[in-house]
From TrEMBL:
Pfam families: CoA_binding, Ligase_CoA. InterPro entries: Cit_synth/succinyl-CoA_lig_AS, Citrt_syn/SCS-alpha_CS, CoA-bd, CoA_lig_alpha, NAD(P)-bd_dom_sf, SUCC_ACL_C, Succinyl-CoA_synth-like. Heterotetramer of two alpha and two beta subunits. Keywords: Ligase, Nucleotide-binding, Tricarboxylic acid cycle. The keyword Cell membrane does not apply. Belongs to the succinate/malate CoA ligase alpha subunit family. Its EC number is 6.2.1.5. It catalyses: GTP + succinate + CoA = succinyl-CoA + GDP + phosphate; succinate + ATP + CoA = succinyl-CoA + ADP + phosphate. This is Succinate--CoA ligase [ADP-forming] subunit alpha. HAMAP family: Succ_CoA_alpha (MF_01988). Gene3D superfamilies: NAD(P)-binding Rossmann-like Domain, Succinyl-CoA synthetase domains. One of its GO terms (biological process) is tricarboxylic acid cycle.
Length: 293
């Protein structure tokens, strides 16, 4: 079992023939991901990277039985691409695009929820189940197969956590980069719940950042659910001043509970093992699992 993507996932790439789509699709194919084709309107009937190109997601799904899509479409058109994928029956939609207008996402998010699709992102590095499928832009070699799940709002810290887990002699079941935009499809709590229910995940790393209430919501849910698996938490932006946006569009301290200090306190109160810096993630996880790092 795995979460969201695995060796059987049939993946299409929206924005397939563009520079970003081409580069990352090639990386995904080389990793072993089952990329079955791509979509670029107006280029249907051609081939690219040895895979068929379709004019629409509906055509791609009909021809390939794709169930997963990754989106490399410019921000102005990305919400439409997300909704098109859901309309065509795609069940896992991973939106890499950064900066999709908030008003567009306010329409797209409920639209895809009504159709039973799961959206990861936007503004995310994607999802990887090591050794099976990489549907995203992360460096695959960093991720070693194992039984620790990762949920992160930060792309770079996803890779750092995976490296720390490997150095601790552990590995990753599935890593989910949920994205850093103000409106994203899957919250920290939703992603943690997927891993909590995964029989091949023994523990979870939860990486958050200043701004919003995703981490607090997840921490309280973990505690209410009975702390079934050890969770190690880290919050980025510990030195950020209030009112200043840091990196991600959603990373801005708007209230007392939005600070890194407050989020770390809430995590500790709910039984989560808190790492003070990214360099401690592997060590703290090893202690939580009672293994020698």
């Amino acid at each position: 079992m795995s979460v969201l993507v695995n060796k059987d996932s049939k993946v299409i790439v929206q924005g397939f023939t563009g520079s970003e789509g081409s580069f990352h699709a090639q990386q995904m194919i080389e990793y072993g991901t089952k990329v079955v084709g791509g979509v670029t309107p107006g280029k249907g009937g051609s081939t690219h990277l040895g895979k068929p190109v379709f004019n629409s997601v509906a055509e791609a799904v009909k021809a390939t039985e794709a169930d997963t899509s990754i989106i490399f479409v410019p921000p102005a058109f990305a919400a439409d691409a997300i909704m098109e994928a859901a309309d065509a029956g795609i069940k896992v939609i991973i939106a890499i695009t950064e900066g999709i207008p908030v008003k567009d996402m306010m329409v797209a998010k409920p639209y895809i929820q009504e159709r039973g699709a799961t959206l990861i992102g936007p503004n995310c590095p994607g999802v990887i189940t090591p050794g099976e499928a990489k549907v995203g832009i992360m460096p695959g070699f960093v991720f070693k197969k194992g039984r620790v799940g990762i949920v992160s709002k930060s792309g770079t810290l996803t890779y750092e956590a995976a490296d720390q887990i490997a150095k601790a002699g552990l590995g990753v079941s599935t890593a989910i980069g949920i994205g850093g935009d103000p409106i994203i499809g899957t919250s920290t709590k939703d992603a943690v719940q997927l891993l909590m229910e995964d029989s091949e995940t023994d523990a979870i790393v939860m990486i958050g950042e200043i701004g919003g209430n995703y981490e607090a919501e997840a921490a309280r849910w973990i505690n209410a659910d009975g702390n079934k698996k050890p969770v190690v938490g880290f919050i980025a932006g510990q030195t950020a001043p209030p009112g200043r946006r840091m990196g991600h569009a959603g990373a801005i301290i708007g209230g007392a509970d939005d600070t890194a200090e407050a989020k770390m306190r809430i995590m500790k109160e709910n039984g989560i093992h808190v790492a003070e810096s990214p360099a401690e993630i592997g060590e703290v996880m090893a202690k939580a699992l009672n293994v020698n790092a």
